[in-house]
Amino acid sequence: GIQVEQSPPDLILQEGANSTLRCNFSDSVNNLQWFHQNPWGQLINLFYIPSGTKQNGRLSATTVATERYSLLYISSSQTTDSGVYFCAAFGGNQFYFGTGTSLTVIP
Amino acid sequence: DTGVSQDPRHKITKRGQNVTFRCDPISEHNRLYWYRQTLGQGPEFLTYFQNEAQLEKSRLLSDRFSAERPKGSFSTLEIQRTEQGDSAMYLCASSLQGSYEQYFGPGTRLTVT
């Protein structure tokens, strides 16, 4: 299967700071998605981004499929951004998830 | 717009009992996936349906686990003779055929005592 590695595993930010989360994957993928998991366990779709760059408000993502990585940028972080961020690479018929980046934003 | 729904949201059971979970996908989605997530880990793939056909099943899934999607709409996941190691969050996701973008339900949290 596809190996997915996320870094950093943990991140603590002051409110208002910017951050970059990285996702490396071991093989060609058909899809890559970024999710935010809320404290109740719900996975919330952030981006569907097999390649290229997308932006949604303070969040943006870039996937360079040929180099097998994706980046999630969070600008002007807010306390509500706290939680675990997962990237998931789709190959074959399933998603392969990384172990996540746990983000804590301090007021 | 109704998203993916799962029932129950929480289940506490004693070791050795059988449990069944239900997932209702987004109405026009014909692909349905089950995942399991333990504390501190990312979700792990269990099985995948396209319409009513179960097309893939993880080798990690023991024969105590079975999933069905009889009419290509909702799906059930049954765990027989539960063990404490089965305690986890069970997540369901769905997608449109031809799209790899998955939408997840809220999950069912299983605790085996």
Secondary-structure map with pairings?
The complex is a heterodimer of chains A (107) and B (113).
Chain A: E1 4-7, E2 10-14, E3 19-25, E4 31-37, E5 43-48, E6 52-56, E7 59-64, E8 69-74, E9 83-91, E10 94-97, E11 101-106
Chain B: E1 5-7, E2 10-13, E3 19-24, E4 31-37, E5 44-50, E6 53-57, E7 65-68, E8 75-79, E9 88-95, E10 103-104, E11 108-112
Parallel strand pairs in B: 2-11
Antiparallel strand pairs in B: 1-3, 3-8, 4-5, 4-9, 5-6, 7-8, 9-10, 9-11
Outline of chain B, from the CA principal axes? globular
Pair of chains with the largest interface and how many residues each contributes: A-B, 24 and 24 residues
- In percent, how much strand structure appears in the residues of chain A? over 45%
Let me know the average pLDDT of chain B. 93
Strand percent estimate of chain B: over 45%
Query: Number of helix segments of chain A?
Result: 0
Q: Strand count, sense and closure of the main sheet of chain B?
A: 7 strands, mixed
Short description:
The complex is a heterodimer of chains A (107) and B (113). Chain A is mainly beta and 107 residues long. Chain A has no helices and 11 strands.
Written description of the protein model:
The complex is a heterodimer of chains A (107) and B (113). By secondary structure, chain A is mostly beta strands. Helix content of chain A is 0%, strand content 61%. Chain A contains no helices and eleven strands. In chain A, the strands form two sheets. In chain A, strands 2, 4, 5, 9, 10 and 11 form a six-stranded mixed β-sheet that branches. Chain A has a five-stranded antiparallel β-sheet with strand order 1-3-8-7-6, with no helix packed on it. Chain B is an all-beta fold and 113 residues long. Chain B is 0% helix and 50% strand. Chain B is built from no helices and eleven strands. In chain B, strands 2, 4, 5, 6, 9, 10 and 11 form a seven-stranded mixed β-sheet that branches. Chain B has a four-stranded antiparallel β-sheet with strand order 1-3-8-7, with no helix packed on it. Chain B is globular and about 40 Å long. At the A-B interface, strand 4, strand 5, strand 9 and strand 10 of A face strand 4, strand 5, strand 9 and strand 10 of B.
